[in-house]
Amino acid sequence: MALVPYEENLVPALSKLHNTSAEFYFANHRLRLTQDWNRLGVAAVVWDAAVVLCMYLELGHIDLKGKTAVELGAGTGLVGIVAALLGANVTVTDRKPALEFLTENVRSNIPPDQQRAVQVSELSWGEDLERYPSGGFDLILGADIVYLEETFSALLRTLEYLSSDSTVVLLSCRIRYERDEQFLSLLKKTFRVQEVHYDSQRDVHIYTAVKGQTRTDL
Known about the structure:
- The protein has helices at 37-40, 48-58, 78-85, 99-109, 152-162, 178-187, and strands at residues 21-26, 29-34, 68-72, 89-94, 118-122, 139-143, 168-173, 192-199, 204-210.
- The protein is α/β, with parallel strands linked by helices.
- A seven-stranded mixed beta sheet has the order 5-4-3-6-7-9-8, covered by helices on one side. Strands 1-2 form a two-stranded antiparallel sheet.
């Protein structure tokens, strides 16, 4: 969500994020994601939470073939791209300033015969949600989108709007601060939340959230 450039000398430990690209191998495809920290800040780099979520999806814990998915705060688009390569029909979303950058990454990494499986769309959490089908997705994906307390209310409204009783929300994140735990507590008021994976090397948690009856066919 945040499109704030950061000064490089303020975060020397994150120097790899200032590389102009990042390369991965997922879903039998070699992916090269453009990064642009100086222009778009945290929205334009690949974070560990996205990598861990892609690894989780690739393990096949969730059947993606033919499913409709939406990625929130997509940034570079890595998670949505991998979900599409694994068979989902994906809408990757972010705020307007990131869309051109996001679109180019999708174009560059999705084979021509699969381009129709991915749509890039503007979505600012909590705003103009009626542009999207209420409860219209099988799967909602979010990697490292729980970090700004002022966005929590809008994010929760967005998750509630996009989810039906059979939608599975997959959130991949680090629990950095007490406020992150507070978001999970707020989420549990509407959703049944369960931790399904923890990557101890990267300190990344993956949670599923479902409102209503638990889905068994994903």
